[in-house]
Amino acid sequence: MADYKWPNNARAAVSLTFDVDGEAGWLGISDDYAERLTSLSDGRYGIARGLRRILEVLEEFDLKATFYVPGRTAELHPAVVAALVDSGHEVAHHGYLHRPAHLLDYDGQRNEIERGLVALETCIGRRPAGYRAPFWDVTPATFALLKELAFRYDSSFMGDDRPYVETYADLSICELPVHWFLDDWPHFSWSNERGGQFADRYAVIGAWLDELDSARAEGRSVTYTMHPEVTGRADHLPVLRKLIEGIKQRGDLWIATHEMVASHITTLSGGNEQ
């Protein structure tokens, strides 16, 4: 895709996205986690406490965001997920049980994506436009299913830092790219098996705003990825607040959901982005 002219002569587009994994973030790793109650409580914290804080900050600044939700999260917390749409936010697809695609065969992946679609449509009353793979893990089978099931965009790849067309074989899809550095999880997460780190949150904010200024200079877009159980904790909420304050202070950015960005670039390309 070519560079785009953003609405209202904005210099760049910025999207705030949140992966609302809840308990599914752990259950998808292994069936063993069904009895690992402490780990499950960490995911549940994101629903019970973290998400509420995040929504309060977004409302304070009058911003809309994209929330990627596993189908199982929608089943376990339907009122919470439905309220996201009622508040004007976008809800997009994030698998069913947050299972990594490379551990599933074709039928297993179809089951994950279709069950997620049913759960989300039942909860929010509409079909989600976009998809983000659990663990940002896409295989050829995933790609084929995204096209068969008519997703309008994906947000799992890292092949550019602008919206672009991701291709595999004779398939293609509008891609809104991501990167690990622009995700809160590598900076602030911890688990018994994988360890983790607790980075200086103000250093992370500074680096994320540097990325924003790079996007402004190049006229492109940037996507930030956060998790309610991470950024929604009181000690990490300043990451979101300071990031939004930095976005607002620059005053020349289009703050948009992923569905809005995908629709915009589709219009500019005459519908030929796929």
Can you walk me through this structure?
The chain is α/β, with parallel strands linked by helices and 274 residues long. The protein has a single domain, classed as Glycoside hydrolase/deacetylase (TIM Barrel), CATH 3.20.20. The strands form 3 sheets. Strands 1, 2, 3, 10 and 11 form a 5-stranded parallel sheet that branches. Strands 4-5-7-6 form a 4-stranded mixed sheet. It has a two-stranded antiparallel sheet with strand order 8-9. It starts with 11 loop residues before the first strand and ends in a 6-residue tail after the last helix.
What layout of secondary structure does this protein have?
Blueprint: E1 12-19, H1 24-27, H2 37-60, E2 66-69, H3 71-76, H4 78-86, E3 90-93, H5 106-124, E4 130-131, H6 140-148, E5 153-154, E6 164-168, E7 171-175, H7 184-188, E8 190-191, E9 195-196, H8 201-218, E10 221-226, H9 237-250, E11 253-255, H10 258-268
Parallel strand pairs: 1-2, 1-10, 1-11, 2-3, 4-5, 5-7
Antiparallel strand pairs: 6-7, 8-9
User: What string gives the helices and strands in order?
Assistant: EHHEHHEHEHEEEHEEHEHEH
CATH class: Alpha Beta
CATH fold descriptor: TIM Barrel
- In terms of per-residue confidence, which ranges show pLDDT below 50 for 5 or more consecutive residues? none
User: Radius of gyration in whole Å, from Cα?
Assistant: 18 Å
Computed structural class: alpha/beta
Secondary structure: number of strands = 11
How many helices? The count is: 10
Please summarize the sheet with the most strands. 5 strands, parallel
Helical content class: 40-55%
Spatial shape: globular
Strand content: 15-25%
Going by CATH, the homologous superfamily would be Glycoside hydrolase/deacetylase
Count of spatially separate domains = 1
Distance between the termini: 10 Å
The mean pLDDT is 94
